[in-house]
Description:
479 residues, alpha+beta, 7-stranded antiparallel β-sheet, 6-stranded antiparallel β-sheet, globular
Amino acid sequence: MSNTGHQACTTVLVGKKASVDGSVMIARNEDFHEAISVKLFTLEPASEVQNRIYHSRNTGVRVALPDKALRCTSVPQAFPLLKDAVGEYGEAGINEKNVAVSSTESVYGNPRVLAFDPLVPEGIGEDAINSIVAPFISSAREGVAFLGKLIAQYGSAEGNGILFADTKEAWYMEIPCGHYWVAQRIPDDCYAIAPNQVSIEHIDFSNPNDFMWAEGIAAFVDTYKLNPDQEGFNFRHIFGTSTEKDRVYNTPRAWFAQKYLNPEIEQSPTSNDIPFIRKANRLISVEDVQYILSSHYNETVYDPIGAAGSEYEKTRFRSISLSRTAESHILQLRPDTAAGVAGIQWLAFGTTAFTPYVPFFTNINDTPKIYKKRTPSVSLDNAYWLFKILGFFTESRYTAFRDSNTTYLRDIQSYAFRRIHEITEKAKPLSGAELTAFLTAENEKTAQYVIQKTRDLIAEYMLESFNHSKLSFTMDKNL
Length: 479
């Protein structure tokens, strides 16, 4: 059966000429349907296995894969056999050739399309995609083609959007039904937002440089009279949905992200026509992407923890940052640096509104100890649980803790950028195994610093909270 736990994510993609430093970035919140989904940050080593077969614990599909697998980072479930957490769900990784994959953004085909190309329950699902694609590809474009062939052979168990990137370009692929899909290259000077609905719009079948698609998709649409438009091939119109749920759950997130990057453009949060791709009015930084994925309609009447707005307005739309966010990642590929230090995986566990993004170089032979440690229950020695606790304390007394949390996040952000610069400079004379060992050790130092700052803040919150018990009594006040 297909797992339904991971169905609510938000995606951001940025082309290299749209970013401040020339980086290609793909980013996504992994949102869960439950409050707890324990995640790890791990490394899958390079390997060679004859007749390699991947077996999904979720759908049961067995996928034949190449013998040789590249080293690749991953953000899997800590306990993949728990109820509602079946399967690996590797979610995000950068392989040793600096190719990044993030999967998936849940999308939904409309009933008419699904009538003629239904999902395949025993096919490929989100739990498997990073594991069966990321270790086997040498470019983002190759990743689209590789997964496309697997979908043609095994079918898709659910509607999914998949992000691919290398140092040259970013691609977004959507599979809303059993076998048919399209993918679009994000223009170098643009960004794209995807919020849990089919987002790709016009497909130019005469331009294979910027679009890829499943074989026979145009004939499929013609055969079953699926195109509602008088001309053109708008994938969103043909395959996607336009429902009340979309206008409450999905479109407001695209609206807010574009409002932030293009404040000069007037749009409605419930519009069906918010473009997938935009050109921002400025160059986009890593912190811009962090802000979008950490946001909750900040400075609008729709902010559920803001001061403005009625109770109806505050609860009208689904926020981007959620208490049930398992992790968030920004996969950054830097074309203007040496290949050995080009890949950075920014990782935030828990509620992104309150927890920091921590940068880890991906040319490594291991991940930081506290990020890969499995603990059977809540523990300050597990990175996921530590950041979940931080988020809980911050939200529980948001008015009192907001300023200290903001200061903490800004301090960590400054530290992160400084660390990237320092490590990149120190790495210049290094190469090969020596460079990999150096970056592995530096990642550990980065993790230790952030973890200690987080523990210190939690301790500060606890000490302050002890002074606010309702079971307190002041004699002078009650005489």
